[in-house]
Amino acid sequence: MNSKLPHLETTIFTVMSKLANQHQAINLAQGFPDFDPHSSLIESLNYYSYQNYNQYAPMIGVEKLRNFISEKTERFHHTIYHPEQEITITNGASQAIFTAIAAVIEKGDEVIIFEPAYDLYKPAVEMFGGIVKPIQLTYPDYNIDYESLKSKVTSQTKLIIFNNPNNPSGKIFKAEDLVQIEAILKDKNCYIISDEVYEHMTFDAYEHQSFARIPSLKDRTFITASFGKLCHVTGWKVGYVLAGKELMNEFRKVHQYNVFSVHTPSQYAIADYLDDENNYLELNNFFQEKRDYFTKGLSSTKFELIPAEGTYFVSASFKNYSELSDREFAKKLTIENKVATIPFSAFYHDTFDEKVIRFCFAKQKETLDSALEKLNKL
Ligand code: PMP
Ligand code: GLN
What we know:
About 45% of the residues are buried. The radius of gyration is 20 Å and the shape is globular. It is of the alpha/beta class. The protein is built from 14 helices and 13 strands. It folds into 2 domains: about 10-30 and about 280-375, Aspartate Aminotransferase, domain 1 (Alpha-Beta Complex), CATH 3.90.1150.10; about 55-280, 3-Layer(aba) Sandwich (Aspartate Aminotransferase, domain 2), CATH 3.40.640.10. The chain has helices spanning about 10-20, 40-50, 65-75, 90-105, 120-125, 145-150, 175-185, 225-230, 245-260, 265-275, 280, 285-300, 325-335, 365-375; strands at about 25, 85-90, 110-115, 130-135, 155-165, 190-195, 220-225, 240, 305, 315, 340, 340-345, 355-360. Helix 7 (about 175-185) links the parallel strand 5 and strand 6. Keywords: Aminotransferase, Pyridoxal phosphate, Transferase.
């Protein structure tokens, strides 16, 4: 068959989860919690399903959920997003990002992506004829090289994709970073996607700096988020996008013919659950404890850890164990040592290999204990 996408392979998350299942390895690869969401959320989902909330939701999403998002964004980031015009509920953050790209990218447009980058961005841009201009974050601090950014932003640049807190590095970009980006983009015409799915997983008193705090760019910025992360329900695939009114109008032109709307009972259940703010404000501490527990357990190994300031991932160099490529090492670790991880090269446009693998610590204590026991025997 004449493939439209000859270079695209199966996503690394599917590959590593499959390998973990085949070899009964502990799956610290794909990012998802191995514990149940709060029972009240499940009860609420059942309630709405039985009460016959089973037909199409409004195209832009359930009003109660959009109102909640508007209030939360104003409370934390002091910018008002109008629930009717500037907020849309999506089929996870993935669909929000893909749809935003579809809405603005035309053939030949340049798109800046900071690497290591979540694996969805580049293929999505290329599917619409865009040309990715990667900028490598500095190693090992994963900072932005602003000289490089200045030189790469040209009149051809249509979009910059930014991810904060950053998957996979665990880096949190600070207020100064947003200010620098704002200054560089001030006189330019380019759009921004700020992917903020880990907004409530920030550690050590770091505060999440949302692009919602940069009102001068509101008309050009899509902010994407995920209730999968916020409510421990990655399988529900519910997320949202924020954007200025005109930009959101363009987004919805695509959204209406792509998915039209999102699973109805989930939206009501999530809105009820998040009425209790403790259900999301406690996430920072909850995941920080897991990060501390897991990294303490790794301190007796020869892995060299990259500090995780946010997200539910921690990454580490394995160069004290092996000279294999990161993909080969991750494969071997899964098959022989029964711990599955993600090789970092999956997050670069070429096969750049810094000998780093990513662990997901959104797991029960028992899962982390079994993984640590195996990793300490390497
Ligand atoms: N962006 C990043 C950085 C992610 O890590 C993920 C997945 N965890 C997504 C987007 C997609 O989120 P969702 O599962 O809500 O589609
Ligand atoms: N975002 C998750 C991760 O980084 C994976 C999501 C997926 O499998 N598509 O692990």
